[in-house]
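On clarity, I found the account of how folds are encoded harder to follow than it need be. For illustration, here is how one protein appears when written out as sequence plus structure tokens:

:::
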Amino acid sequence: MLDYRFIKENLQAVKENIKNRNMTADADLVVKLYDERTALTTKLQNLQQKRNANAASMKQKLDPETRQKYIEEGKALKDEIAQAQKELEEKEVLLDEAARKIPNMANPAVPIGKVDTENLEVKKVGTPRKFDFKPKDHVQLGESLGLIDFDRGTKVSGQKFYYLKNEAVFLEQALIMYALNILRKHNFTTFITPDVAKQEILQGIGFNPRGNESNVYCIEDEGTCLVATAEITLGGYHSGEILDKSKLPLFYCGLSHCFRREAGAAGHFSKGLYRVHQFDKVEMFVYSLPEESDKIHEQLRLIEEEIFTGLGIPFRVVDTCTGDLGAPAYRKWDLEAWMPGRADENHPEGDWGEVTSTSNCTDYQARRLNVKFRDDDGKNKYVHMLNGTAIAVGRAMLAILENYQNADGSVTIPPALVPFCGFDKISPKQNS
């Protein structure tokens, strides 16, 4: 979250930022509650000073009448302090609740817009393939090649679940190993993270565990949730800790299952593997010194570009607009791969679809999770936290199937993955 004093001292800028992000939050209420909390804190401190003075007076030699007077005064102060503490605690809860709705400030360079169509394209890598046959989408390919069973996934688990079969199982593992090896080359510490996290960790990262708009599955009566990304578990790894400045930045990557409710998500391009309730992902996460976070953000984006360049999939980089940033992000880059299966009247040969993103969340998450470092001046300061997708397996597999398909219905495996999966082509089968 943002610092309360920052909100008070930069109220108009904070309100303009909320407007630009197309979000609902009450910065005026935060300032009001902050001032009320400050007044209550002062009141409580004054009462405590009076109590201490009363206790000091009681240690003196007093006549019975005066002692009784101090005793009664002490009891009254005790009741007043208890009431003030109760009011302060209640005010803290209201302040925290209101402040958590305030999004992070956006980088001044971020394009202002409400929806993803207003993101700014900054780079293209590779050229979309020209097919000499009518290409299929990944759902058709997955079914015809016996790779994906959506119908039985729905029968057993519900909508937006699926079975991976045959070569797709090895392709998924190949994508994971391919990404992990690239990150190992870049000196990331590798993790397999828990698939469950406490609600307070999710809230710290910026996920809302409750309500109709929540994108996570909560475990009833446990106070925990299934994670939507390893960003949650990697971000919570050092919660409540003071990190050694000399060891920063910390480059972590985590492999996890990801579970998302996708409440309200619909549309033609949400079909198949693009938007599902469960998938595997390798996530990058960095704890950084504040002055280094912009540079590291660029580094994470370049690693994502390296991964998809190595797969031979055309993609573009977009600078995400304010309305599409998400509350914790200061700036976010998306990689959008070319997807021939997105062909329609407006885009007859296909269109771009997001496959990775990387965000610099500055100290927004660190304040919530209380992650600090001790600076050279001896003061504890909040770290900056960054995240980025190395590989979201479902969307990467989608892009491979659609871009590497052949006229005979087969799919060629990108050369970079062949050593990991052990074959270079997936061919049609008699019985899938």
